[in-house]
Amino acid sequence: MSASPYRERKDPPRVNLFERFSKVEREAARAVRAEHKKKEREARDERQERLDKAAGVASVEVVCHADTWDFVRTKAPRFEGRPFSFFSGTGDRLDPEPDADGLVHITLSGPNLVKLLDWMWSASQSTDPVERALAKRIYNGAAAVVDTVDPSVQPGLALPPIVIDDRVPPPA
Questions:
Q1: Angle of the 129-146 helix axis to the 23-55 helix axis, nearest 10
Q2: What is the rounded distance in angstroms from the CA atom of residue 133 to the CA atom of residue 144?
Q3: pLDDT value at residue 91
Q4: Does this model's pTM top 0.85?
Q5: Helix (H, G, I), strand (E, B) or coil at 33
Q6: pLDDT per residue as tens digits for the range 7-57
Protein backbone atom coordinates (compact mmCIF):
# COMPACT_ATOMS: atom_id res chain seq x y z
CA MET A 1 0.00 0.00 0.00
CA SER A 2 1.35 3.39 -0.95
CA ALA A 3 1.75 6.31 1.41
CA SER A 4 -1.05 8.87 1.44
CA PRO A 5 -0.20 12.19 -0.23
CA TYR A 6 -2.01 13.93 2.62
CA ARG A 7 -0.41 14.62 5.94
CA GLU A 8 -2.04 13.41 9.03
CA ARG A 9 -3.84 16.35 10.62
CA LYS A 10 -2.98 17.13 14.20
CA ASP A 11 -5.47 19.27 16.07
CA PRO A 12 -4.01 21.73 18.54
CA PRO A 13 -4.60 20.82 22.14
CA ARG A 14 -7.88 22.11 23.53
CA VAL A 15 -7.56 25.05 25.87
CA ASN A 16 -10.08 25.60 28.59
CA LEU A 17 -10.64 29.36 28.36
CA PHE A 18 -12.11 29.33 31.84
CA GLU A 19 -8.75 28.19 33.19
CA ARG A 20 -6.80 30.46 30.88
CA PHE A 21 -7.91 33.65 32.60
CA SER A 22 -7.58 34.44 36.25
CA LYS A 23 -10.57 34.95 38.49
CA VAL A 24 -9.85 38.69 38.56
CA GLU A 25 -9.81 38.86 34.74
CA ARG A 26 -13.08 36.92 34.49
CA GLU A 27 -14.72 39.22 37.04
CA ALA A 28 -13.44 42.27 35.16
CA ALA A 29 -14.91 40.91 31.91
CA ARG A 30 -18.25 40.28 33.64
CA ALA A 31 -18.22 43.84 34.98
CA VAL A 32 -17.55 45.24 31.52
CA ARG A 33 -20.42 43.19 30.04
CA ALA A 34 -22.74 44.28 32.84
CA GLU A 35 -21.81 47.93 32.31
CA HIS A 36 -22.40 47.58 28.56
CA LYS A 37 -25.84 46.04 29.14
CA LYS A 38 -26.67 48.81 31.62
CA LYS A 39 -25.72 51.51 29.08
CA GLU A 40 -27.79 49.79 26.36
CA ARG A 41 -30.78 49.62 28.72
CA GLU A 42 -30.39 53.30 29.67
CA ALA A 43 -30.14 54.34 26.01
CA ARG A 44 -33.26 52.29 25.17
CA ASP A 45 -35.14 53.85 28.09
CA GLU A 46 -34.01 57.35 27.10
CA ARG A 47 -35.12 56.77 23.51
CA GLN A 48 -38.53 55.48 24.66
CA GLU A 49 -38.98 58.46 26.98
CA ARG A 50 -38.18 60.77 24.06
CA LEU A 51 -40.75 59.01 21.84
CA ASP A 52 -43.33 59.26 24.64
CA LYS A 53 -42.72 63.02 24.93
CA ALA A 54 -42.94 63.48 21.15
CA ALA A 55 -46.27 61.65 21.08
CA GLY A 56 -47.78 64.35 23.29
CA VAL A 57 -46.68 67.27 21.11
CA ALA A 58 -49.53 69.01 19.28
CA SER A 59 -47.32 70.27 16.47
CA VAL A 60 -43.78 71.35 15.72
CA GLU A 61 -42.20 73.00 12.71
CA VAL A 62 -39.21 71.39 10.99
CA VAL A 63 -36.96 73.76 9.03
CA CYS A 64 -34.34 72.21 6.77
CA HIS A 65 -32.98 72.22 3.24
CA ALA A 66 -35.19 70.60 0.61
CA ASP A 67 -32.54 67.90 0.05
CA THR A 68 -32.59 67.06 3.76
CA TRP A 69 -36.38 66.74 3.67
CA ASP A 70 -36.10 64.50 0.59
CA PHE A 71 -33.76 62.26 2.61
CA VAL A 72 -36.40 62.07 5.38
CA ARG A 73 -39.04 61.15 2.83
CA THR A 74 -36.88 58.37 1.39
CA LYS A 75 -36.60 56.85 4.87
CA ALA A 76 -40.38 56.94 5.40
CA PRO A 77 -41.99 53.57 4.82
CA ARG A 78 -44.67 53.14 2.21
CA PHE A 79 -48.25 52.38 3.21
CA GLU A 80 -50.55 50.62 0.74
CA GLY A 81 -48.11 51.40 -2.06
CA ARG A 82 -48.24 55.14 -1.41
CA PRO A 83 -45.51 57.12 0.32
CA PHE A 84 -46.32 58.15 3.85
CA SER A 85 -47.45 61.76 3.93
CA PHE A 86 -46.52 64.35 6.50
CA PHE A 87 -49.17 66.92 7.27
CA SER A 88 -48.86 70.68 7.56
CA GLY A 89 -51.34 73.43 8.29
CA THR A 90 -52.19 73.68 4.61
CA GLY A 91 -52.92 70.01 4.05
CA ASP A 92 -50.74 67.23 2.68
CA ARG A 93 -47.44 68.64 1.50
CA LEU A 94 -44.97 66.10 0.30
CA ASP A 95 -43.06 68.70 -1.71
CA PRO A 96 -43.05 71.97 0.25
CA GLU A 97 -41.76 75.02 -1.60
CA PRO A 98 -38.37 76.29 -0.41
CA ASP A 99 -38.13 79.83 0.98
CA ALA A 100 -35.59 82.42 -0.17
CA ASP A 101 -32.80 80.61 1.73
CA GLY A 102 -33.67 77.28 0.09
CA LEU A 103 -35.19 75.95 3.32
CA VAL A 104 -38.51 74.15 3.60
CA HIS A 105 -40.89 74.50 6.55
CA ILE A 106 -42.91 71.43 7.48
CA THR A 107 -45.36 71.22 10.36
CA LEU A 108 -45.48 67.82 12.02
CA SER A 109 -47.99 66.49 14.50
CA GLY A 110 -46.83 64.59 17.56
CA PRO A 111 -47.48 61.17 15.97
CA ASN A 112 -45.54 62.21 12.86
CA LEU A 113 -42.72 63.51 15.06
CA VAL A 114 -42.58 60.10 16.75
CA LYS A 115 -42.30 58.46 13.34
CA LEU A 116 -39.59 60.92 12.25
CA LEU A 117 -37.56 60.15 15.38
CA ASP A 118 -38.03 56.42 14.96
CA TRP A 119 -37.09 56.38 11.27
CA MET A 120 -34.06 58.59 11.77
CA TRP A 121 -32.86 56.51 14.73
CA SER A 122 -33.15 53.37 12.59
CA ALA A 123 -31.33 55.02 9.67
CA SER A 124 -28.60 56.24 12.04
CA GLN A 125 -27.69 52.58 12.62
CA SER A 126 -26.86 52.18 8.91
CA THR A 127 -23.47 50.99 7.71
CA ASP A 128 -23.54 53.70 5.01
CA PRO A 129 -21.58 56.64 6.50
CA VAL A 130 -23.52 59.27 4.53
CA GLU A 131 -26.92 57.89 5.54
CA ARG A 132 -25.73 57.49 9.13
CA ALA A 133 -24.46 61.10 9.29
CA LEU A 134 -27.65 62.61 7.84
CA ALA A 135 -29.94 60.50 10.02
CA LYS A 136 -27.94 61.24 13.18
CA ARG A 137 -28.01 64.99 12.52
CA ILE A 138 -31.76 64.99 11.92
CA TYR A 139 -32.41 62.73 14.92
CA ASN A 140 -30.21 64.83 17.22
CA GLY A 141 -31.82 68.08 16.04
CA ALA A 142 -35.30 66.75 16.70
CA ALA A 143 -34.24 65.12 19.98
CA ALA A 144 -32.82 68.41 21.29
CA VAL A 145 -36.21 70.07 20.87
CA VAL A 146 -38.23 67.11 22.17
CA ASP A 147 -36.00 66.89 25.24
CA THR A 148 -37.21 70.37 26.28
CA VAL A 149 -40.80 69.09 26.55
CA ASP A 150 -42.16 68.74 30.08
CA PRO A 151 -45.33 66.60 30.00
CA SER A 152 -46.28 67.73 33.53
CA VAL A 153 -46.67 71.38 32.44
CA GLN A 154 -50.11 72.54 31.38
CA PRO A 155 -50.41 73.68 27.77
CA GLY A 156 -48.15 76.64 27.35
CA LEU A 157 -45.55 77.89 24.94
CA ALA A 158 -45.17 76.35 21.51
CA LEU A 159 -42.06 74.31 20.86
CA PRO A 160 -39.22 76.05 19.07
CA PRO A 161 -38.77 74.82 15.51
CA ILE A 162 -36.50 71.90 14.75
CA VAL A 163 -33.90 73.60 12.59
CA ILE A 164 -31.43 71.51 10.64
CA ASP A 165 -29.26 74.31 9.29
CA ASP A 166 -25.79 74.49 10.78
CA ARG A 167 -23.91 77.58 9.69
CA VAL A 168 -20.57 79.19 10.29
CA PRO A 169 -20.72 82.14 12.72
CA PRO A 170 -20.04 85.58 11.22
CA PRO A 171 -16.44 86.79 11.49
CA ALA A 172 -15.66 88.72 14.68
A1: 60
A2: 16
A3: 43
A4: no
A5: helix
A6: 677 777 676 666 667 778 878 888 888 999 999 999 889 999 999 999 999
What is the rounded distance in angstroms from the CA atom of residue 2 to the CA atom of residue 16? 39
Instruction: Kindly give the pairing relationship between strand 103-109 and strand 162-164.
Output: unpaired
| Separation CA 64–CA 100 (nearest Å) | 12
Q: How far apart are CA 92 and CA 74, in angstroms?
A: 16
SS (H, E, C) 65-134: EHHHHHHHHHHCCEECCEECCCEECCEECCCCCCCCCCEEEEEEEHHHHHHHHHHHHHHCCCCCHHHHHH
- What number is the average pLDDT over the span 117-126? 90
Q: Tell me the C-alpha distance between 87 and 73, whole Å.
A: 12
Residues 6+ apart with CB under 8 A from 85: 92, 94
Mean per-residue pLDDT, 133-157: 89
Q: What are phi and psi of 103, to 5 degrees?
A: -100, 145
User: Average pLDDT for residues 104-111, to the nearest whole number?
Assistant: 88
| Cα angle, residue 67 at apex, residues 73 and 135 outer, rounded to 5° | 60
In terms of C-beta density within 10 A (0-12 exposed, 13-18 middle, 19 or more buried), how is residue 59 classed?
middle
